[in-house]
């Protein structure tokens, strides 16, 4: 079990709980379906989840009369960034992620890496060229988000 306390910052606590739930569900898919089919099911679910999230964000963008692009994505993004920490000298780098923290506690970075694929789904839906050459779930010191409209 992950280390979550009621005194933790609420957004980070919810992100950790979401990451822990994802871990148990993804682990069960692998256990029930095997590595290959389980991984495929997880990827499909993450893609569908990302597309559903993007659909609601795009709906909000339309309501606000905003174009579909990276700037709009930042304005209508549904996931708060309160508990994530950026490198002050390198704003493209996320140095702390509560979800990564949970997956690391659970020894589940490989499963966490599958979840992280959601970022590409979300950015693609907003017609943004996205690349993440570094990712904490892959053992890197940060997640580097390279974004081009």
In short:
The protein has 149 residues and is of the alpha+beta class.
Judged by helices, strands and strand pairing, the structural class is alpha+beta
Strand order in the largest sheet:
1-2-4-3
- DSSP E strands, number: 4
Provide the CATH architecture: 2-Layer Sandwich
What is the C-level CATH assignment? Alpha Beta
Question: Span from first to last CA?
Answer: 40 Å
The number of helical runs is: 6
Compute the gyration radius: what is it? 16 Å
Kindly identify the CATH topology: Muramoyl-pentapeptide Carboxypeptidase, domain 2
Q: What is the string of helix and strand elements?
A: HHHEEHHHEE
Portion of residues in helices?
55-70%
Low-confidence stretches: none
| DSSP strand content | 5-15%
* Average pLDDT over all residues: 95
Instruction: Please state the overall shape, judged from the principal axes of the Cα atoms.
Output: globular
What is the count of structural domains? 1
Q: Profile the largest sheet.
A: 4 strands, antiparallel
List the helices and strands and how they pair.
Blueprint: H1 10-33, H2 35-63, H3 70-76, E1 85-87, E2 90-96, H4 98-105, H5 109-116, H6 118-125, E3 129-134, E4 143-148
Antiparallel strand pairs: 1-2, 2-4, 3-4
Helix pairs in contact: 1-2, 1-4, 2-3, 2-6
Key traits:
globular, 149 residues, 4-stranded antiparallel sheet, 6 helices, alpha+beta, Muramoyl-pentapeptide Carboxypeptidase, domain 2
Description of the molecule:
With 149 residues, the chain is of the alpha+beta class. The protein has one domain: Muramoyl-pentapeptide Carboxypeptidase, domain 2 (2-Layer Sandwich), CATH 3.30.1380. It has 6 helices and 4 strands. It has a 4-stranded antiparallel sheet with strand order 1-2-4-3. β3 and β4 form a beta hairpin. α1 packs across α4, α2 crosses α3 and α2 runs parallel beside α6. The longest helix has 29 residues. The model has no long low-confidence stretch (mean pLDDT 95).
